[in-house]
Design a protein that fits this description.
The chain is α+β, with helices and mostly antiparallel strands. The strands form seven sheets. Strands 1, 2, 3, 4, 10 and 11 form a six-stranded mixed beta sheet that branches. The protein is globular. The protein starts with a strand and ends in a 14-residue tail after the last helix. The structure holds adenosine-5'-diphosphate and magnesium ion. Residues 9-12, 171-173, 199-201, 235, 238-239, 242, 301-303, 305-306 line the site of adenosine-5'-diphosphate.
């Protein structure tokens, strides 16, 4: 039974599986490796997933959604065509699409998967991802941290070198940095750090805001359709700046334009660059790795393809970056390799992948005042190697106190209320004067996200134990069944017609973006293609499709009309001047951060501090 490796991304998702002795990327029904993580409800109520849904973000924004991964594990919901969807249900639709496309490609059914998640995902986000898998008919055998997956793919590519690598994964909505040690057959992640609110879409947003500013428009006052069209063109410009020196941003139906080069992009987005440095610094500090000890940098995520991002990293790290694997696919490849390990494939069976606890687990303690806020007392610290087991003692604070409440929290905040509460355990203790009775609390956390909390009353040796299953176990069989049926009842767009539907969605978007004679031409071509589709004769459809696609392609490039300039992706001078203004600012920031830390009584940063300057 095949096991599917899946990179379930904020913007794009990919699948890979272990076949003929290597991890292979799986093309979708359109022959593409990347499937946009977008869902849309068609006019007839059927569900579209992928490129067609992405096109409809512009032509039918109310019926279409993307970026839902950012809300995994929360109760935010979207109503599309009168039906409410949770983020995990939208993710389930994407996973199901990947599964079905992979089944068609492989010619056998798939019921298990390894799914990658950002290293920074907390327990409820991981649980939601597992539920999404279940709802897509996939038992999620294991969640793997995205950076671990990327490191694994690179390791398979070059099994020779023992080394210390930093994985810099910069996608559409998240940035994750991790430090990875590979020695012989063991790959260990020694630190992870991330910013799950920073990604490529922030660049699109900055560009869109600049366009509005220059053309006296107010982003917030645009219609959802105009906003979507503007963001779409902004993203396109950003991508074109990866191979062109200068681009002109124009948006159909919006007056004005904005010319943009990479230098201007740097200026426009300088706060974003500054935020990119923080997780990098923290990860190195957490793993006590000096920058000089890093052998290689692994780039993952589409945003790493931006010359300005690479330039920034080159400058920050003072070294060249070269990597044979594409940032787009490296995580999915790693998930594919891991699925091979899970299947106990003899070729890679010997590889050991250790994992980390990406967050701190602890219990609440009073800060002294009677009704003061509860403070978090960490028991298992972030980035501990798994499995791990740690003990701490706690004592009563009032006379004749007869029970202790051991709350269990996850997170990095000082006050309990700002962290995620996983549950609690009540322990009866003999009533005695304050501080004379206490419990030893042991937290044991394993690779599958199972946390065992064991408390031992110090005077009597009596123990109380509770297991927190975490990761997706909070959905009962009945509930899973019920929700599966609900999702299954949704009409899914027929797979064999997907290519046609994607072309129609493309035409609908172009129609929405144009006016006058161009719009009429698009409408005429659209009707013609629909008439052919209505004939239901495969040979006619087959013949008409390339013509329709060519027409749309030509219309697209005409509408864009971007200026083409020779490429100059280096921008060394830009970085020089930027770095000059930064060195002082960065130092100030560092000092300020350290002051805040001391003022709030937090642990001082380890000896890694200031490795990056
Ligand atoms: P995620 O892991 O979040 O799904 P991806 O790794 O697919 O994200 O990256 C998506 C992001 O990469 C988007 O913001 C997209 O605009 C950006 N991107 C993709 N290709 C390029 C490119 N050639 N130049 C610049 N940005 C790109
Ligand atoms: Mg990604």
């Amino acid at each position: 039974m095949a096991l599917l490796g899946i990179d379930l991304g904020t913007s794009n998702s990919l699948a890979a599986l272990w076949k003929e002795g290597q991890a292979q990327l799986v093309p979708n029904a359109l022959g593409e490796l990347l499937t946009p993580s977008a869902v849309s409800l068609d006019d007839d109520g059927s569900v579209l997933v992928g490129q067609a849904a992405k096109e409809r973000l512009v032509s039918a924004p109310e019926q279409s959604v993307t970026g839902f991964k950012r809300f995994m594990g929360t109760d935010k919901s979207w109503t599309l065509a009168g039906r409410r969807f949770l983020p995990e249900e939208l993710s389930a639709l994407v996973l199901r699409k990947l599964r079905e496309d992979a089944e068609a490609w492989l010619g056998e059914s798939i019921s298990e998967a390894v799914v990658s998640v950002p290293a920074y995902f907390n327990d409820s986000q991981r649980a939601a991802t597992k539920r999404a898998g279940l709802l897509a008919g996939l038992k999620v055998e294991r969640l793997i941290n995205e950076p671990s997956a990327a490191a694994l793919a690179c390791r398979m590519h070059d099994p020779e070198g023992d080394n210390t690598a930093v994985v810099f994964d910069f996608g559409g909505g998240t940035l994750d940095v991790s430090v990875v040690e590979s020695f012989e057959n063991v790959i260990s992640i020694t630190a992870v750090c991330g910013d799950n609110r920073l990604g490529g879409s922030d660049f699109d947003h900055e560009i869109a805001l600049r366009f509005c500013e220059k053309n006296q428009l107010f982003f917030e006052q645009l219609t959802p359709q105009e906003r979507a069209a503007l963001l779409r063109q902004a993203e396109l410009c950003k991508r074109q700046l990866s191979s062109q020196k200068e681009v002109l941003l124009q948006v159909p139906n919006l007056d004005g334009s904005l010319s943009l080069n990479n230098q201007q992009l740097i200026d426009l987005c300088s706060p974003l660059f500054q935020r990119m440095a923080t997780p990098l610094r923290r990860a190195l500090a957490d793993s006590r790795t000096p920058l000089e000890a890093v052998d290689s940098f692994i780039l993952a995520g589409g945003s790493c393809k931006m010359p300005v991002v690479q330039g920034f990293l080159r400058h920050l790290l003072q070294r060249e970056l070269d990597q044979p694997l594409s940032p787009d696919t490296v995580v999915a490849l790693g998930a594919g390799v891991y699925s091979g390990i899970k299947e106990r494939n003899p070729a890679i069976r010997d590889l050991v992948l250790t994992d980390l606890c990406p967050f701190t687990l602890g219990t609440g303690i009073t800060s002294g005042e009677a009704n003061g806020p509860l403070r978090l007392s960490p028991i298992i610290e972030r980035n501990s190697v798994l499995p791990t087991s740690k003990t701490q003692n706690y004592y009563t604070i009032s006379d004749m106190q007869s029970r202790l409440i051991v709350d269990v929290y996850q997170g990095e905040e000082r006050l309990c209320k700002d962290n995620l509460k996983l549950g609690e355990l009540e322990v009866p203790v003999p009533a005695r004067p304050a501080g004379e009775e206490g419990v030893a609390v042991r937290f044991t956390y394993d690779l599958n996200g199972i946390l065992e909390v064991e408390t031992t009353v110090l005077s009597s040796g009596e123990t109380w134990c509770k297991v927190f299953l975490g990761q997706g176990s909070d959905m009962s069989q009945e509930e899973a069944q019920k929700r599966l049926q609900e999702l299954a009842a949704l009409k899914i767009h027929p797979r064999e017609r997907e290519e046609n539907r994607t072309l129609l969605a493309w035409a609908e978007r172009l129609y929405a973006e144009t006016l006058g004679p161009e719009r009429e031409r698009i409408a005429a071509m659209y009707d013609r293609f629909q008439t052919v589709l209505a004939s239901q004769e495969d040979w006619r459809i087959h013949r008409a499709r390339p013509d329709f696609a060519l027409f749309l392609e030509q219309m697209e490039s005409r509408l864009q009309g971007f200026g083409i300039f020779p490429s100059d992706p280096q921008h060394e001078e830009a970085w020089e001047s930027m770095a000059r203004s930064w060195t002082d600012e960065e130092q100030d920031n560092l000092e300020q951060e350290e002051d805040d830390r001391i003022a709030s009584g937090r642990r001082r940063r380890g000896p890694g501090q200031g490795f990056i300057h």
